[in-house]
Amino acid sequence: MRASIVELRYRMHDVLKALDRNEEVRIVYHGKLKGILRSSTRHAARRIVQHPFFNMRQGRQTVREEMEKLRGGRYRDL
User: Residue 34: its pLDDT value, please?
Assistant: First the structure.
């Protein structure tokens, strides 16, 4: 689907229906492509339990130690 800025404003319901059908919505402004909207469920292949932060305390470390390990040196350098 191709939608202009005015169509986004006045026909958002149609845009949302297109996203429900897993269609890409191309946003155009003065005839030039400005962005593409895609459905979030389309790319949600990984389940929440497969996320690396889920059940992160298995290593028996404190949350502070785990977060410092994940952040690296950039916060310690300030």
Answer: 93
